[in-house]
Amino acid sequence: MRRRLLQSLVPLVAILAIVAAVPLANFIATNTTRNLFLSRSNDADWFATMAESPLQSGDIATLRELAVRYHELYNTPVFVVDVDRRVVATSRSGVDVKDPDIDLVLASTLAGRLPAEPKALWPWQSGEMVVSRPVVNNGRVLGASVLRVPTENGRHDVQNGLLLLLGGLLMAVGAVVIGIVRPVTRWVLRPLNDLDNATHQVTRGALDTRVSTDGRAPELRRLGDSFNSMALSLHQARQREREFVADASHQLRTPLTSARIHIEGLSRLSPTARFALSDIDRLGRIVQRLSRLAGSDRPGDIEGSEAPLDLAQAVKERLVGWKAVYAADDLELIIGEMVPGGVAAELEVDDILDVLLDNASKYGAPPVEVSVTRDGTEVVMSVRDHGLGLGSRDLKKVGERFWRSAHHREMPGTGLGLAIVRSEAARVGGRVVARPPIGGGLVIEVRVPLLEDYED
């Protein structure tokens, strides 16, 4: 935007400078020409005075010597004619009084009128300036003195003046651009820069960012108000989201605690109750993670005090129960490659796998394949289904809180499952990747760092 504004203003300043330069250039050329004409007119007047007596007496020897000496001194040819245009004295031979320029000047001079000033000299022109003055005695014209003035020096002076003018205009344009155009551009674009900075702050999560609309143009004020309204809506939505998650986790703690007390009593009588007690504990951990979701998504610092967890072994153990669940629903669960790899013990493998396998059974299509592999410094747990998959836009939103694909919004769910998976992976420095595999379907990869001190 700034570049476009400068590209519009700088040519405008240049055009104004050119418009101002035309009369200034004409003044320089005209003034230089006039000074040269007046200087040589004075010399022509002097010759006219000196020629008055010789034209009456016919003794022109002295007049011829003055003409030659003047020619040698100023490099300017001089000649004197009588009223019949006969050359009576000249500084050099070969004078053609029928030359159009000389004829025009002599016609005016011998008629008793002063010739008009010549046109302005320009560097690209050539030729001489003809200056003439009448020789007069008692009001009677006796002849005329004529100077054929070279114009090289005058045109050179005009050229120097034009160069100085050009340099001054360039400096003036530069000064205007630096001193006026750039500050004006910054002033005009300051509201947009503020809006741009505020947008970056919002993208970084600072949803309480607002822009000032005081003293702004109506269009920019409306734009600022629209931005503030958008930021406020996002802030309120995020606040409602956090409050919902916090309230939900808080409300779940009491019934879970009560259920655990009852099931703990039954666990002494039934081995099956002990499994239920284990699931109650897992639900308690899920509630704790929901509380963390109400805060920041940034990964925490993992101390790593516990022994590394073999991800492949943990996955295989959890799949034992899930194979029975899938078999009961006539779904095929394939256990793929299982490469041992040590990860942080804090990684909640059961919770992550439960979410991924539950989503695959509800939203995907069999067979569902689970594998654990290594990719450089990462251990990758993959769950693939053969359903419809997701579009490129939806793939970028996988893991956002409360987000659900347009194809699955009519199905039961909260849109928090993959957000929990992403949060769990982030706690140990990992990440979640969703991609379309060859052959269709969807692959969800949970990539976590491979611990360097792990031994197979």
What's the quick description here?
The protein is α+β, with helices and mostly antiparallel strands.
How many helix segments?
A: 10
Please identify, by name, the CATH architecture of the largest domain: 2-Layer Sandwich
Number of domains: 3
Query: What is the subunit arrangement here?
Result: single chain
General shape: rod-shaped
Run of helices and strands: HHEEHEEHHHEHEEHEEHHEE
First-residue to last-residue Cα separation: 58 Å
Q: State the share of residues found in helices, binned by percent.
A: 55-70%
CATH superfamily of the largest domain: PAS domain
Beta-strand percent range: 15-25%
The major β-sheet equals: 5 strands, mixed
Strand order of the largest sheet: 6-8-9-11-10
Unreliable residue runs? 296-305
Let me know the average pLDDT. Answer: 81
Using the coordinates above, name the CATH class of the largest domain. Answer: Alpha Beta
Rg from Cα: 50 Å
CATH topology of the largest domain: Beta-Lactamase
Structural class: alpha+beta
Which features would summarize this protein structure in a list?
456 residues; alpha+beta; Beta-Lactamase; Helix Hairpins; Heat Shock Protein 90; 3 domains; five-stranded mixed β-sheet; four-stranded antiparallel β-sheet; 10 helices; rod-shaped
Structure overview:
The strands form 3 sheets. A 5-stranded mixed beta sheet has the order 6-8-9-11-10, with helices on one face. Helix 4 runs parallel beside helix 5 and helix 7 packs parallel to helix 8. It has 3 domains: 157 residues, 2-Layer Sandwich (Beta-Lactamase); 76 residues, Signal transduction histidine kinase, dimerisation/phosphotransfer (DHp) domain (Helix Hairpins, Orthogonal Bundle), CATH 1.10.287.130; 141 residues, Heat Shock Protein 90 (2-Layer Sandwich), CATH 3.30.565. About 2% of the residues have low confidence. By secondary structure, the protein is of the alpha+beta class. 25% of the residues are buried. The chain contains 10 helices and 11 strands. This is Signal transduction histidine-protein kinase/phosphatase MprB. It holds the Pfam family HisKA. Its cofactor is Mg(2+); Mn(2+).
